[in-house]
Amino acid sequence: GTAYARRRARARCCAAATRPRGAVEAAKAELLQSLQGLERGAAASEEQAAEVDRLAAAVEALNPTRDPLASPLLNGQWELIYTTSASILGLSKPKVLRPWGAIKQALDTQTLRAENLEGAPLFNAVRAKLTPRGEDDIVDVKFDTFRLLNSLKVQAPERARGWLKITFLDEQMRVCRGDKGNLFVLTMVDRDYSLPAEGW
Q1: 8: part of which helix (H) or strand (E)?
Q2: Residue 178 to residues 165, 183, 192: CA-CA distances in angstroms?
Q3: What Å distances lie between residue 130 and 10, 55, 138, 140, 193, CA to CA?
Q4: Burial, 28: exposed, middle or buried (Cβ in 10 Å; 0-12, 13-18, 19+)?
Q5: Ramachandran bin of 181, using left for φ above 0, alpha for ψ from -120 to 50, beta for the remaining angles
Q6: Is residue 7 within 8 Å of 13, Cβ to Cβ?
Q7: pLDDT tens per residue, the chain (200 residues)?
């Protein structure tokens, strides 16, 4: 019941508070080191991907933020540094059309909006509406507008939706797991970035 939920929340809070910061930083450093040369995951072998997943799980176990979806630490612009998502990495495309510029994501917890920006060569982008489920740090994601080749706007189809579970969050790093089983590791690049007004 409600009392159990309160006890569970207090336990999670206390556990997070007692984790030594040094252990968190060491686990993050080991994860970041494992990503060197993997081209955001596009160049990762099965063995390397498994090792990254293991190290990500070690970081997730030390998550210092009890309620990530309510935390102001989510706000700002993040850069994707690793993912297992073949679609984001463009693995089905010819190499010349795969994103080699930065892939960034901006979040605004006040408006519950997200914006994904893909760098060179295509400069595609997408806007999404976020809906927290209120359980297990999961947020539903409904994409609403795509921008192709930095200019052409297309309404997203109704099926363009999914969910994310935020499994680690601090001032510099965010780790998420997606509904298709994909892993995402992002680092903060601009804490003061704010999403532009509706419409590009």
Answers
A1: helix 2-18
A2: 6, 7, 26
A3: 26, 28, 10, 6, 18
A4: buried
A5: left
A6: no
A7: 544 344 444 444 444 444 578 999 999 999 999 999 999 999 999 999 999 999 999 999 999 998 999 999 999 999 999 999 998 998 888 877 788 889 999 999 999 999 999 988 878 889 999 999 977 789 999 988 878 776 676 776 677 799 999 999 999 999 999 999 999 999 999 999 988 766 54
In sequence order, the 6+-apart residues with CB closer than 8 A to the CB of 20 are none
CATH number for the domain formed by residue range(s) 2-190 = 2.40.128.280
pLDDT in tens, 45-59: 999 999 999 999 999
Which H/E stretch holds residue 12? helix 2-18
Coil vs helix vs strand at 97: helix
DSSP 110: T
DSSP codes joined into one string, 173-196: EEEEEETTS-EEEEEEEETT--PP
What pLDDT is recorded for position 169? Answer: 98
Read off the tokens for 70.
């309510």
Contacts of 176 (CB under 8 A, 6+ apart): 164, 165, 166, 167, 183, 184, 186
Instruction: Indicate the domain borders of the chain.
Output: 2-190
Q: Strand pairing partners for 82?
A: 185
